[in-house]
Specification:
The protein is α/β, with parallel strands linked by helices. Helix content is 45%, strand content 17%. Strands 3-4-2-5-1-6-7-8 form an eight-stranded mixed beta sheet, sandwiched between helices. The radius of gyration is 18 Å and the shape is globular.
Length: 267
């Protein structure tokens, strides 16, 4: 059974794309068929997995898919990494908010695309833009769960409450199956009191919904996108690579447990 996970946080610079790329690559390294869908017009997940953003290159993207010009399968690219594929974004994706706005089913376009792809992948990772716009709403409507990367700083605590309200609203009106898959502490600097205090506060409030794995500040994680590689390929022995491998193990274990409980409940 496939799982669709949105990586979302309306605050920029918290590690969404880093998490999308490196979690997906780590899932693929575990021999799990994984698709990354880049839902952000900045297209950083696309370039971070080695694809050029040259506008003169003729290539279908999520923009053409959401406009029903091509199917999702026609736009998917092989990342060159075993078990990892990409449905790329492009800069013109920014126009989709205006293109879809007049349509009655504007929140469901991505869900319809994903329903046709689910059978081919164990995990589908959605890299959301840093805004609660129509692209993010489409991702949350299409997703089974949301992983929220967060920096351990004061303003992160303020922003997460707004995101939780959005998740609750979508669960109540558009996607009742949506759940909080977890909060991952990213760019964590264990040397600072503030980071430890914010981490403790998040664990008190969200409990087991905060992943045990913490993603450290790591120069290799920062360097890898400029080489068009996930950190697992750029420097597999780095602390960043090791952390995302552990996060992938947590995600796989969580989904395996959920599947077992679901089977038991249906017995």
């Amino acid at each position: 059974m496939s799982k669709v996970i949105a990586i979302a946080n309306q605050k920029g610079g918290v590690g969404k794309t880093t998490t999308a790329i490196n979690l997906a690559a780590s899932l693929a390294a575990a021999e799990v068929a994984t698709l990354v869908i880049d839902c952000d017009p900045q297209s950083n997940a696309t370039s971070g997995l080695g694809f050029s953003l040259d506008p003169t290159e003729e290539r279908n993207s999520l923009y053409q898919v959401l406009r029903n010009e091509v199917s999702g399968r026609e736009a998917i690219l092989d990342s060159g990494i075993e078990d990892l594929w990409v449905l790329p974004a492009s800069r013109d994706l920014a126009a989709i908010n205006l293109d879809l706005a007049p349509e009655a089913d504007r929140e469901h376009h991505l869900r319809q695309v994903i329903e046709e792809l689910r059978s081919s992948y164990r995990f589908i990772i959605l890299d959301c833009p840093p805004a609660l716009d129509l692209l993010t709403i489409n991702a949350l409507v299409a997703a089974d769960s949301v992983i929220v990367p967060m920096q351990c700083e004061y303003f992160a605590l303020e922003g997460v409450s707004h995101l939780m309200q959005t998740i609750e609203a979508i669960r109540g009106n558009l996607n009742p199956r949506l759940e909080l898959g977890g909060i991952v502490l990213a760019q964590y600097d264990e040397r600072t009191n503030l980071a430890r205090q914010v981490a403790d506060e998040l664990r008190r409030h969200f409990g087991a919904k905060v992943f045990e794995t913490v993603i450290p500040r790591n120069i290799k994680l920062a360097e890898a996108p400029s080489h068009g590689k996930p950190v697992l390929l750029y420097d597999p022995r780095s602390r960043g690579a090791e952390a995302y491998i552990q996060l992938a193990k947590e995600v796989i274990a969580h989904e395996s447990n959920a599947a077992t409980q679901s089977t038991g409940a249906g017995a």
